Amino acid sequence: MGRRVEILGEMFAVLPFDEARFFNLPCVYLMVHQAGDNFVVHYVGQTSKLNQRYASHHQLAVAKARGATHVLVLVVRDARDRLAFETMMRWFYKPPLNAEEVPSHMQGWRAAMHCGKADIAELARASHMTCERGLLPPAVKEPVVARG
Fold first, then answer.
1. For residue 72, what are the domain limits?
2. How many domains does the chain have?
C-alpha cells in the first residue's frame, strides 16, 4: 500500500476501486472521490474481508455513477471495534449512499467513546444537547473527509 490519508486521527490506505479486490483483511472502508485536496464520502461500511464485500457490493455502481473512484481502508480486526468505528463515521459524515438511518447523536457518542475519540464524542454530546450538528467548524458543511 502506498498512499495514506488521515481521517479522524487514523491513517487510512487510499486504494483505487480496482485494487479493492486484492484486499482481504477486516476493515472499515469509505467509498470516496477526490475533490481538490479533499475526499468526499459517498458510503461508509465495514467488513471482515473487503475483497469479498466488493465483489457484489450493492452500492458500488451507484457510488461510481456519483463520481466515486477510490476506497479508503482502515484495518480493524475486531468486529465490535469495526462496527463502532463505522457507526461513528456514519454519524460524523452522514454519507448519502448508506441506506441505514444516520446514527443518533447518542449512538455517535457511544461509538466515539468506544473508539477512544473524545473530540468526536464531545461533538456528538453537544449535538445531542442542542438538537443539531453542533460545534463543527463552518468549513465542514459537505461530507469532506480529509486532505490527501
1. 4-147
2. 1
Closest CA to 90 of 80, 105, 75: 105
Highest mean pLDDT pick, 35-39, 61-65, 80-84, 96-100: 80-84
Kindly report, residue by residue over 79-121, the tens digit of the pLDDT. 999 999 999 999 999 999 998 888 988 899 999 999 999 999 9
| Burial group, residue 43, by CB count within 10 angstroms (0-12, 13-18, 19+) | buried
Rounded CA-CA distance 136/66 in Å is: 25
Report residue 136 as a C-alpha cell: 463543527
Q: Measure the CA–CA gap between 32 and 116, rounded to whole angstroms.
A: 24
CATH of the domain at 143: 3.40.1440.10
Are 127 and 112 within 8 A, CB to CB? no
